[in-house]
Automatic annotation (TrEMBL), chain A:
<dbReference type="InterPro" id="IPR018309">
    <property type="entry name" value="Tscrpt_reg_PadR_C"/>
</dbReference>
<dbReference type="GO" id="GO:0003677">
    <property type="term" value="F:DNA binding"/>
</dbReference>
<feature type="domain" description="Transcription regulator PadR N-terminal">
    <location>
        <begin position="6"/>
        <end position="78"/>
    </location>
</feature>
<keyword id="KW-0238">DNA-binding</keyword>
<dbReference type="InterPro" id="IPR036390">
    <property type="entry name" value="WH_DNA-bd_sf"/>
</dbReference>
<dbReference type="InterPro" id="IPR005149">
    <property type="entry name" value="Tscrpt_reg_PadR_N"/>
</dbReference>
<dbReference type="Pfam" id="PF03551">
    <property type="entry name" value="PadR"/>
</dbReference>
<dbReference type="Pfam" id="PF10400">
    <property type="entry name" value="Vir_act_alpha_C"/>
</dbReference>
<feature type="domain" description="Transcription regulator PadR C-terminal">
    <location>
        <begin position="90"/>
        <end position="165"/>
    </location>
</feature>
UniProtKB/TrEMBL annotation, chain B:
<keyword id="KW-0067">ATP-binding</keyword>
<dbReference type="InterPro" id="IPR003439">
    <property type="entry name" value="ABC_transporter-like_ATP-bd"/>
</dbReference>
<protein>
    <submittedName>
        <fullName>Putative ABC transport system ATP-binding protein</fullName>
    </submittedName>
</protein>
<keyword id="KW-0813">Transport</keyword>
<feature type="domain" description="ABC transporter">
    <location>
        <begin position="5"/>
        <end position="241"/>
    </location>
</feature>
<dbReference type="GO" id="GO:0098796">
    <property type="term" value="C:membrane protein complex"/>
</dbReference>
<dbReference type="Pfam" id="PF00005">
    <property type="entry name" value="ABC_tran"/>
</dbReference>
<dbReference type="GO" id="GO:0016887">
    <property type="term" value="F:ATP hydrolysis activity"/>
</dbReference>
<dbReference type="InterPro" id="IPR017871">
    <property type="entry name" value="ABC_transporter-like_CS"/>
</dbReference>
Length: 172, 242
């Protein structure tokens, strides 16, 4: 969330509620109602770290503060923009659970795989229904398409884990 | 309710002179009318073999196949052909189009075989092919079509008669995601009209559209999943506000 705020402040200083509005406009329904508290605590942390400064505006009776980027904030934003987000996703909740639970003999590996496969298939169905419905807007649709591809990869990975399991059982 | 299609302890062993291949080793399966079932599983696990047996295109080594309450695995070729023409549409993994007929003529064939008029057959074929995004390919010969186009012709042919049961072996296997979605839409529409669908697929998106997913492994059913109606999707915008 932090770099998104910095990006929104790049061209102009803004009030906190304006940041919230911009994000809502960009992401529509994908953004669950963000309460004002979250917005202001994020801004407070950014200010503490010297990346933004807030100023009270003369003659603004609401006593709202207007935020702008500092030089350090500019620099942080630039390096965030220039650095691609990490490609390798080696952290996977299911896999960690699988390894630990199987090693401890707490569940049959195939049961874990089957349950996870069900969840992925059902999620795929849920997401496809969103796409079939339409009406979510192009940004949301792209995001959903991305999630669909991740789920397909997740399913392929489960197949691979299952195959290795079978090979392991044969050679054991 | 009697199932529309049923396999009872179905087994198929291929004996090619050398080692025997136990392609199916006792499959029990029951498909209700109007159901959409997907069959998944790794290459060589017996999916095509199973589909061929269920369609009466091949005979089991042991076990039974029941179609609409009638045991079909011992019927004569003629009886099987008649039954298939009336009740079953089949999309082959490798299309099996008639090479000397045009794309549209391939689609019209099953209609003509059950005695529909030429004009009506032409009209139905044309509509179906347009729905599948190959309306401009009606006069092409199969050899002039891409893999994905041939696949859609094969699908149109399978759907032409509005058969009670549509069996498809990888019906989206050669399609890009846009064409796959058109095919899926058409298949869903068939299901909504009450047709029964049984599709072999590697495509998780097709499997996820089914009511039930049957997973095969080494000629046996290894897992069955009933999918629920789509759940509402929450869009959690990553909660890290720190
Ligand atoms: N006509 C045949 N003669 C001999 N063996 C065969 C024949 N047809 C299939 N087999 C064997 O039977 C097994 C199951 O084949 P089948 O075609 O049903 O697999 P599949 O699940 O459809 O695979 P794929 O996903 O690659 O299409 C395989 O080991 C295959 O080599
Ligand atoms: Mg096959």
């Amino acid at each position: 969330m932090r770099p998104l705020f910095l990006a929104l402040l790049a061209d102009d200083s803004r009030y906190g509620y304006e940041l919230k509005q911009s994000l809502e406009q960009e992401f529509g329904e994908m953004l669950p109602a963000m309460n004002a508290g979250q917005v202001y605590s994020t801004l407070a942390r950014l200010e503490r770290d010297g990346l933004v400064v807030g100023r009270s505006v003369e003659g603004d009776s609401r006593r709202k503060r207007m935020y702008e980027l500092t030089e350090a904030g500019q620099a942080e934003l630039s390096s965030w923009i220039e650095a691609p987000v990490p490609g390798a996703r080696l952290k996977d909740e299911f896999f960690m659970k699988f390894v630990v639970v199987v090693a401890a003999g707490l569940a049959a590996p195939m049961k874990l795989i089957e349950r996870q496969r069900r969840e992925y298939l059902q999620s795929l169905r849920d997401l496809d229904a969103v796409l079939a419905d339409g009406g979510k807007g192009p940004t949301a649709e792209l995001m959903v398409e991305g999630a669909v591809l991740h789920l397909k990869a997740g399913l392929e990975w489960l197949d691979l884990i299952e195959q290795r399991l079978a090979v392991g059982a044969e050679s054991a | 309710m009697t199932p529309v299609l049923e396999a009872r302890d179905l087994a198929k062993t291929y004996d090619t002179g050398g080692a025997k291949v136990f392609a199916l080793r006792g499959i029990d399966l029951s498909i209700e009318s109007g159901e959409f079932v997907a069959i998944t599983g790794p290459s060589g696990c017996g999916k095509s073999t199973l589909l061929n047996l269920l369609a009466g295109l091949d005979r089991p080594t042991s076990g039974q196949v029941w179609l609409d309450g009638e045991r079909i695995d011992q019927l004569s070729e003629t009886e099987l052909a008649r039954l298939r023409r009336r009740k079953v549409g089949f999309v082959f993994q490798f299309f099996n189009l008639m090479p000397t007929l045009s794309a549209a003529e391939n689609v019209e064939l099953p209609l003509l075989l059950v005695g529909r008029g030429r004009k009506e057959a032409r009209r139905s074929a044309s509509t179906l092919m347009s729905d599948l995004g190959i309306g401009d390919k009606q006069d092409a010969a199969p050899a002039q079509l891409s893999g994905g186009e041939q696949q859609r012709v094969a699908l149109a042919r399978a759907l032409a008669n509005s058969p009670d049961i549509v069996l498809g072996d990888e019906p989206t296997g050669n399609l890009d995601s846009v064409a796959a979605r058109e095919v899926l839409t058409l298949l869903r529409a068939a299901r909504d009209r009450g047709q029964t669908l049984l599709l072999v697929t590697h495509d998780a998106r097709v499997a996820a559209a089914a009511d039930r997913v049957i997973n095969l492994r080494d000629g046996l059913v290894s897992d069955q999943t009933e999918l629920q109606p789509a759940r509402p999707v929450a869009f959690p915008f990553d909660g890290d506000s720190g």
